[in-house]
Amino acid sequence: MSKKIIATASLAGCFGCHMSILDIDERILDLVELVEFNKSPVDDIKKFTKRVDVGIIEGGCCNSENVENLKYFRENCDVLISLGECAIMGGLPALRNGIPIKECLEEAYCDGPTVGLNTEKIIPNDPELPMILDKVYPCHEVVKVDYYLPGCPPRADLIWDALVALLTGSEMDLPYEVIKFD
Amino acid sequence: MKEKILEIISNYNKDKTRLMDILHDIQSVAGYVDDESIELLHQELGISTSQVREVISFYHFYSNEPLGKVNIYLNDSVTAEMHGREAILETFEKECNVKEGSVSEDGEFGLFHTSCIGMNDQEPAAIINGKMFTRLTPYRVKEIVKDLKGGKDIKELIYEGDGGGRNALPEIHSMVCNNIRRRGALLTHDYTPFEVTKTVLSNTSPDEIIDVVETSNIRGRGGAGFPTGMKWKFGRKAKGDHHVIICNADEGEPGTFKDRVILTEFPELVFEGMVIGAYAVGADIGLLYLRYEYKYLLNYLNKVLDDMRSNNLLGKNINGIDGFNFDIRIQLGAGAYICGEESALIESLEGKRGEPRDKPPFPVEKGYLNYPTVVNNVETLALIPKILTKGSDWFLSLGNKASSGTKILSISGDCNYPGIYEVEWGTSIKDILDMCGALDVQAIQVAGPSGALIGEKDFGRTISYTDLPTGGSMIVFGKERNILTDVVMNFINFFIEESCGSCSTCRNMTTVLKERFTKILDGKGVPSDIDDLLNWSELLKVSRCGLGQTAANPITSSITNFRHLYENLLQKNVEFDTGFDLEESVKASCAAVGRQPILHNM
Predict the structure, then answer these.
(1) Topology of the domain comprising B70-160
(2) Which of A177, B118, B514, B601 is most buried (CB neighbours < 10 A)?
(3) Closest-CA residue in chain B for A121?
(4) Handedness of CA A26, A27, A30, A34 (dihedral sign)
(5) pLDDT in tens, B558-584
(6) Nearest to A144 among B576, B586, B601 (CB)
């Protein structure tokens, strides 16, 4: 069996989900037997070099670059997984969703207690910078997402089980405790 | 002002369960309930300020902020919109120099929207300083505002004359019309009020009364259709220091206005129904919960009660029956659809937010102040005296097997003769449409937004508990109406507005559904969106009360019966589209920082 190809990305996330991927510990050696990594922060491949079987997305979309990246993944991956709270629900970054973006930017760059050096009260506006979205969007509100792995971060075992199930085509065991947290 | 507020509170013996009345009274002397009053309520009633605030914020007609000297509540029912609400709103905004949802700068006018006020057969209608104004036109609005500015009293402004029937009585003096178009068992004047109380009760046992009611097979007329006899039996059996009979006159289902007409023309029947119910159940406390929108009937109804008291039809040893003590108090609501749900209504009667209770226990076991409580609809109670005079066989001879008797329908919308029609259960939709002069009908909403939207193929169906159950609301939509934008959207907004917010399903899912529905209307829909709407609607069924459980009905029912309207709006040959619009979503931030959006390659 040829190796399946995996790609990962962290959008508006904290890389905690990627840490959790690495938390599968020595099983990563088994994983390497099963898969080959393409575009991912893990191997620092910047552009897709071939068609990918499974794309794993951490984080939601808070700016235009996230959107671009997510769409790039969707175009190049057969299966796309939203990994973790931020990708699925927007997570912590989405706490700003109730506040108009103008107020958020003014608080961050002009009015907040730690912006003393910005005496001219400039909100960064270089055309090189990604454009901020009006709110943080979960991935499935931007592109089609095939699977969701919940958690903050999802436990390494869950990621492992999901990947194994997906790559071997077997059924995934999802006991109640795994999908219902209290 | 402080003395006045304290006086009001002591008028109600510092009873926190009377918070609704206290807030009404404070608002009528002070214009609104300010922070100082809230503090006083906290001190005097022994409840926290947040408990007072949560009640004020829950009800539409209480305010913690100053209102205008004149307050206009323009209702946004679907029929109001169909009959030109927009032009009325614009005229009010222009003439009063105020935006909807606010008070004018000079503090003269407050202009607010409100949910259906029970005037669907005479829209557009508004409540102005407690007075009902119906069939408004831009001309009439200009006239009203001019007169108000000229210092005329609100009572002097009714040039239309009274609405006929008892609306002409000085206690009511309202331009509201009854529009009774068809009379049946209930609406016919063939019964002398209080005959049963005077002649039957003294020689009939409570069990015998319940027996007749049970045999008549009468079911609750509010919509749920619970057998009344069974409810009374449960109420009688339940143990408690007191028993309570409540008449639910919080008629809030958009499109329903039959209780308004029954209370105007036949209040004696309703109250007598309560007295008989009290005798049967063994109740000593009677409450009629009147929706705030019908406040113009309050003085009149209280006068009827006073007359009953002076004739020993209420009070101690009623009509000489030893130990039969019962009296009725009218509780005014404050604007909340959910209070039509019986346990929410009871919460409201206890001076709290109208949030439905968990069931069981049901109100017949633990209701008002935890006493066994029977809650009946206005129409149900009004039928009781007639059933007892004419017998259960007479009642069973009307209607059909599953649904005995008659049903009073409130018909409005695109028909020539909107109004009140009393028909037997089992009447077909087609016959009803013919009766009310509805031509070129595209759809009819049976039983209000929480009911079903049906099209021509179902016009042969009948109103019946086994076919199309209804609390009485029927709204007709003509061929020229846009069902999705004019009708379904109005109902979706209604449920969002009226959700009490207690269950997360009803609080959130209604908005989530609206977003997906809007996506389809915006031309961004794909086939899976229709499936999503249907699947997500299922989630609402876990809500605690009927409002939440039926809040998706406008969507599911219109998809079931008018699926082509949705499909016509879907994108052609597009299987998937989230509807995400990058250009739109970066607009605000680019404007905030002063840069041009760059959208190439995306």
Answers:
(1) Glutaredoxin (3.40.30)
(2) B118
(3) B593
(4) negative
(5) 999 999 999 999 999 998 999 999 999
(6) B576
